[in-house]
Amino acid sequence: MATVNSYDPIGGLREDNHMPTPDRTSVAEIVQAGRDILESEGVARLTMQAVADKVGVRAPSLYKRVRNRDDLIRLISESAVRDLGERLAAVGTSGDPHQRLAEMAHAVRAFAHAHAEAYRLIFAPGPDAAKPSLDTLTEAVRPVMRVVEDLAGPEDTLEAARTVTAWVNGFISMELAGAFNLGGDIDRAFEFGIATLANALARARDRAPDPRNAARRRTRARSIPEPR
Whole-model pTM? Predict the structure, then answer.
């Protein structure tokens, strides 16, 4: 509580101890400060003290809103995931799925180049307490699940989404690391890769179903517990 002086017309100046101390920061400001530090100095410098200094509060005040550094990293990761999800959702749900998949891949690549450290953080290993929540991730990848379902069919949606994600992330991670050393046009290679993936997924949908795959899917479905 803050002590605020006010004027009493009968008794004169008095102290009022019932005014709450105004908040000097918010979770949104803390997350933005953390993202700024992450991009400019890297995850190693992303500490509670550094964020407290940036938002202008003492470190103990930060702990009133963020439990610890893992919680801070989780909040920042979730913020980045939501931003990326908004870019994917902006592509839309109608039109040629080949083109939609290409646009989503380009959206991920553009995000990674604009926010390289945040992008790396999304895929970085770490304790569960520092990882984005499953709900946040599920909502972000929903546009990808829709487009790969249109390409590969409902039976192979999860497998197709994992294949696309692994290729796109692998390409972008190598690009950010400067690992393409054989020359050539990197942009053309990216276009080639995503077009090849889209065509392969579409062909997989059109091929005759393998009875063994259907049996495996039935077994997998039986192993998933029903919600209570």
Answer: 0.79
